[in-house]
């Protein structure tokens, strides 16, 4: 029914956009960056595949969105899908109404950097394109199927009941897409037990049973879980008291250190970029070697722990910049899971081309697949389905009214 959906992901000074065609085959995409500064600009790829760069000094989100929409309006987008990091306890994508916007605002204390930026983008697109249906697709929604024993922290009950302190999980759009696509490739669409490892600058793992998330590594915020580019993942929470008492650090300095100065960057003292670390390790840099080792070991530990949520294990999907591109990291991670019966095929693993999907085990144990993620495609699909449901609900309502009048 819909020809194309504009997918928007607003950060505090950037907007990623993608125009996704109905069958999700054609894309126009780009990035507006440095918003609010003299260096504000849009970089992108046109339909003809040419590079595009537009300088727009001091442009804010609204101005950037105006320019983006001007450039793509002849493609006639029929709806806008917004990526929203935190939806609190919302369980699915929602048409943007004043009530849903309030729910996104209420979740701001749980995602203080992300949700305000999304709201700026939502407000701007609603003002600019009041006639287009707009949908919010939440990173947290897919994980709302987790059972209480997976999402509750062992903390005083009132922190959960009165202040919503619980595990939410993130990267839900990616875990949902990859597990759906991967299980389809494996011939058991949305059936059985699967583990996903989304490994990028931010990384997380997820356990999926019959198409539903039953546990995931990220928690109240995206800091919990595995080692990431600059985020520490799990640490002993007493590190806060230790650093405050011994180094006089305040809570903000500690939080910044854990989110921005830790992970691969902190361990290696060199880079948050896995490619740089692999190269440095090959040249004998011991800190880079250790960072890679900690990354893979802790990732394997997380996968092993999450497997407790699955009655049976069909296999493992790798995705994200690292998971899709690094045969070395996949092999090392699987080597830390010796009791699971995984049999990685070195030939298939090493031979998998960049950006392609494929099976990389020898075939006599739990399966191992690489499935490139497609968050924009998934957001477009969910947006399309919410809009279509809204239209069919409206049609049904008018049928009822007509029958009542007749
Ligand atoms: P993402 O956040 O999903 O874009 O992933 C970014 C991460 O993927 C960075 O750490 C990159 O170094 C890593 N990456 C991309 N290509 C490769 C590669 N060929 N080998 C190892 N890491 C890679």
From TrEMBL:
Protein name in UniProt: Acetate kinase
Quaternary structure (record): Homodimer.
EC number assigned by the record: 2.7.2.1
Active-site residues, Swiss-Prot/TrEMBL: 139 (proton donor/acceptor)
Reported cofactor(s): Mg(2+); Mn(2+)
Gene3D superfamilies per UniProt: 3.30.420.40
Annotated site residues (Transition state stabilizer) in this chain: 171, 231
Any one GO CC term of the record: cytosol
SUPFAM superfamilies: Actin-like ATPase domain
GO MF term list: acetate kinase activity; ATP binding; magnesium ion binding
PANTHER family, per the entry: ACETATE KINASE
Lineage: Bacteria, Pseudomonadati, Pseudomonadota, Gammaproteobacteria, Moraxellales
Family: Belongs to the acetokinase family.
Coiled coil: none
Cellular localisation: Cytoplasm
Involved pathway(s): Metabolic intermediate biosynthesis; acetyl-CoA biosynthesis; acetyl-CoA from acetate: step 1/2
Function: Catalyzes the formation of acetyl phosphate from acetate and ATP. Can also catalyze the reverse reaction.
Pfam families membership: Acetate_kinase
Assigned keywords, A-Z: ATP-binding, Cytoplasm, Kinase, Magnesium, Metal-binding, Nucleotide-binding, Transferase
GO BP term, pick one: acetyl-CoA biosynthetic process
Sequence positions that bind Mg(2+): 9, 375
Record's catalysed reaction(s): acetate + ATP = acetyl phosphate + ADP
Sequence positions that bind substrate: 83
Enzyme class, spelled out: transferase
Binding sites annotated in the UniProt record for ATP: 16, 198-202, 273-275, 321-325
InterPro entries for the chain: Ac/propionate_kinase, Aliphatic_acid_kin_short-chain, Aliphatic_acid_kinase_CS, ATPase_NBD
Cofactor note: Mg(2+). Can also accept Mn(2+).
